[in-house]
Amino acid sequence: MSSKMQSSNNIAQARRTVQQLRLEANIERIKVSKASADLMHYCSEHAKYDPLLMGIPASENPFKDKKPCTIL
Amino acid sequence: MGEMEQMKKEAEALKTQIEAARKAACDTDMASAASGVAPAPRVQLKTRRTLKGHLAKIYAMHWSTDNKLMVSASQDGKLLIWDSHSGNKVNAVPLKSSWVMTCAYAPSGNLVASGGLDNMCTVYNLKTPVIKTVKELDAHTGYLSCARFLSDTEILTSSGDTTCALWDLETGKQKTVFLNHVGDCMCLALSPDMNSFVSGACDSLAKLWDIRDGQCKQTFQGHTSDINAISFYPSGNAIITGSDDCTCKMYDLRADQEVIGYQDAALNSGVTSLALSVSGRLVFAGYDDFNCNIWDSLKGEKVGVLSGHDNRVSCTGVPVDGMCVCTGSWDSFLKIWN
């Protein structure tokens, strides 16, 4: 690649980087306190539906081993 | 001043602007905010099933949306479809290339996909009388690290060629290529609303993408090594990442920054995989040290550990109904815990 092509590739890359940074700089941000509160709220609302958190009664556990049968 | 110099200056100024905006939004951190929340109970899960059948390292697993079937991929050159309730193998799909790194189950249950060092994503129909290859998606110039179906007609892939791509499964062609990472893309996760996805890469960055317009919307930094695992928090407002730097992090999308980290001085193994319980409260993270640690996502404390594998935990997954967690390992076994 000629050095002219290389430097114009570098400029194109730099332009893309600046364009991307502009996009990312311009987003609206909420405060971490609000973000945390919303995440905590979601967790607490859904905790009762979380089997791994609440525990699973043996009768409702599809993975609970069935008692072995003995053939008499 | 040359254009190059000018742009370097502008890039630096924008980075400073972003850092300042993040700092301004950073009025607390998640652990402090959650200090009043009751601690998660000590989580002690038992192994309910050990699925034996693969003959080599397992690299990936994915649950079907029916909460019963799952697919696993091993470098023994096979995909196995398991009935997790009975522990039986339902199907075996021989792979053209044994160097598999990922597998995926379509939400419909009709299709599965695999890919790896062959740089391709191969899609199989499970519902034909004999399992058939329906498409070979061939355009990436690097290994396929992860694949996720949006539907029976669209699939997202991430690749060692630093790109992610959205494919049309009817034409077999890439509809959109997502360009911005400067390191191998290692993982991806779809947002609950399916409008966006996040990717993690060897450039230690996580990026949020709009699926339809192909744009990178946000970039999350903080990790100091490859990001191997990524997941959305179930509300869709946060993501969790796992890295070779031995930590996991939660980034909030609307605050545009890290809000909590999951790390322990005693832990010096990389994170390979992660999965969340349905409320998002528990993070199951698989590590190179053969364990899967369970973290309280809000408080950042370790609340349990899944020990039982004899080699690296390479993949973890929680089904949609949240009734268990599955771990897959280089020891060739999958374990189901609850």
Global morphology of chain B: globular
Mean pLDDT of chain B: 97
Task: Return residue spans of chain A where pLDDT drops below 50 for at least 5 consecutive residues.
Answer: none
Sheet-strand content of chain A, in percent, reads under 5%
Question: Any key phrases for this structure?
Answer:
heterodimer; A: 72 residues; mainly alpha; 58% helix; B: mainly beta; 4-stranded antiparallel β-sheet; 2 helices; WD40_PAC1 (chain B); WD repeat (chain B); transducer (chain B)
Kindly describe this structure.
The complex is a heterodimer of chains A (72) and B (338). By secondary structure, chain A is mostly helical. Chain A has three helices and no strands. Chain A has helices at 3-25, 32-46, 51-54. The radius of gyration of chain A is 28 Å and the shape is elongated. Chain A starts with a helix and ends in an 18-residue tail after the last helix. With 338 residues, chain B is mainly beta. Helices cover 8% and strands 48% of the residues of chain B. Chain B has two helices and 28 strands. Chain B has helices spanning 3-25, 30-33, and strands spanning 47-51, 58-63, 69-74, 78-83, 88-94, 100-105, 111-116, 120-125, 132-138, 144-149, 154-159, 163-168, 173-179, 185-190, 196-201, 206-210, 216-220, 227-232, 238-243, 248-252, 257-262, 271-276, 282-287, 292-296, 302-306, 313-317, 325-329, 334-337. Classes of the chains: A mainly alpha (72), B mainly beta (338). Chains A and B meet through helix 1, helix 2 and helix 3 of A and helix 1 and strand 17 of B. Chain B: It comes from Cirrhinus molitorella (mud carp). Chain B: InterPro entries: G-protein_beta_1-5, WD40/YVTN_repeat-like_dom_sf, WD40_G-protein_beta-like, WD40_PAC1, WD40_repeat_CS, WD40_repeat_dom_sf, WD40_rpt. Chain B: Keywords: Repeat, Transducer, WD repeat. Chain B: This is Guanine nucleotide-binding protein G(I)/G(S)/G(T) subunit beta-3-like. Chain B: Belongs to the WD repeat G protein beta family.
